[in-house]
Amino acid sequence: MNTLSSAPSIGKKTGESLPEQQARSVEFSIACYDREVPPFAGVEIERLHGHLYCLPSYLAMTGQLDGASTYVASKDGVPATVLLFRMEGHAVTVISEFVQLDEEEIRRFAAYMFGTFSSVRRISFNRVRTVLRSLPYPWHAVNHTEDMIVELPATPQEYDARIGKNMRRNIKRYTSALQRDFPTYAYRICDAEDIGEQDIRDIIRLGCVRMESKNIEPRYTEEETRWIVQLAKRCGLIGLATIDGKVCAGAIGFRIGENYFMHVIAHDPQYNDYSLGILCYYHTICEGIARGGKRFHLLQGRYGYKYRLLAERHDIQHLDIYRNPVHAIAQGKRIVRKALDGRVLAIKQWLLHDAERSDAPGARFIAQVVNRLRQRKRSSGDAVRPPQESTTTHPSGKKSSG
User: Fold this and answer.
1) Cα torsion for 175, 179, 185, 187, to the nearest 10°?
2) Quick one: CA dihedral 357, 383, 375, 172, positive or negative?
3) What is the pLDDT of residue 358?
């Protein structure tokens, strides 16, 4: 999606009631904490928005929380929207990412920012899930990435029936082969209280080994590893595959509300022929269902195996909102650049991921050529990792291998 829309501004002066407040007898109230993230914000963000990439702890780990302010819109005294943002020069940037917001919430936020801060000319949501039809301000939106989400059925048996005959057959075949060739093979699930730090570090180490086997430089940091350990001990769901008692594959996920998130998945390259990665996904998703989860986020990357696991693509957009048409025109170069970036990304995603599933004439042949070129480049040691290559690519631009 790449949209430019314009309408008269209705920004309000500081202290005036918003149109929604007047129409609803001041049903909504707004509070803003300048350069502060109050203690209650983390709990409310989990409750309201429930995404890994908007947690204050995640934003702190990726270096985005310094100088952040907090916007709280409450309905009848109860927080209904909590967003973290930073103000830099004439721009407000929302750092709460991958949140799902409806048009009314975005309109309310924009009206408050423009009405309260006279110096603000642009509001940016770096990564937001929304559907916009109209705003009372000029705005420009472009697809930036995606969140691959599995809507979970009531039981693992129902999920097993939905994934299709071929997937079921492959899971049974690979499991049987592992058990035949490696009699000590075992897969177990650990939740928060049972998770060991060494198990997490072993999975991360395998991720690094796998990236190195593809001539891709691992990017995990000790800071991120500590963050993963801390969050896993609070709300983690870890799958561990072992052979002779040694970790040979694993999945690191987290539960936030009714949502599960697959953050790291890795396996030892010597077991490539056994599809251990798919087995880790499958078993961990089934465990999420058994524990009452409603959605399992496989995050970024339009890989075919995610579709086969029943993930659906939800586009995540970059959204810019301008105070008035004059400020939009003044940012014309930015708008053109964002539009071009969106178009280039769309083409790249089609070539790397979507062509192989397309019915367009020649699309699958093109996909085969692209895949061969990628494999040749990797084998030569000159691989450059695309942004959607890894399960654990950070939306902020800080990347880790998985």
Assistant:
1) 30
2) negative
3) 65
pLDDT of residue 354: 66
Task: Say if residues 268 and 217 touch (Cβ distance below 8 Å).
Answer: no
Are the C-beta atoms of 101 and 80 separated by less than 8 Å? no
Contact status, residue 50 vs residue 257, Cβ threshold 8 Å = yes
Cβ distance 148 to 306 under 8 Å?
yes
User: Residue 217 and residue 211: Cα distance in Å, rounded?
Assistant: 6
Angle at 240 between CA 238 and CA 245, to 5 degrees: 145
CB 283 within 8 A of CB 175: no
Residue 51 has pLDDT above 90, yes or no: yes
* Crossing angle between the packed helical segments 276-290 and 165-181, to the nearest 10 degrees: 110
Integer CA distances (angstroms), 116 to 109, 119, 120, 158, 330, in order: 11, 9, 9, 51, 22
Dist. CA 334–CA 330, nearest whole Å: 9
Higher pLDDT among residues 73 and 210, named by residue? 73
Q: Is 50 exposed, middle or buried (0-12, 13-18, 19+ CB in 10 A)?
A: buried
The candidate with the shortest Cα–Cα distance to 320, out of 333, 310, 334, is 334
Q: How confident is the model at residue 213 (pLDDT cuts 50, 70, 90)?
A: confident
Asked whether the beta carbons of 116 and 316 are under 8 A apart, the reply is: no
Q: What average pLDDT score do residues 70-76 get?
A: 95
Phi then psi for residue 386, to 5 deg, are: -70, 155
49/215 Cα distance (integer angstroms): 37
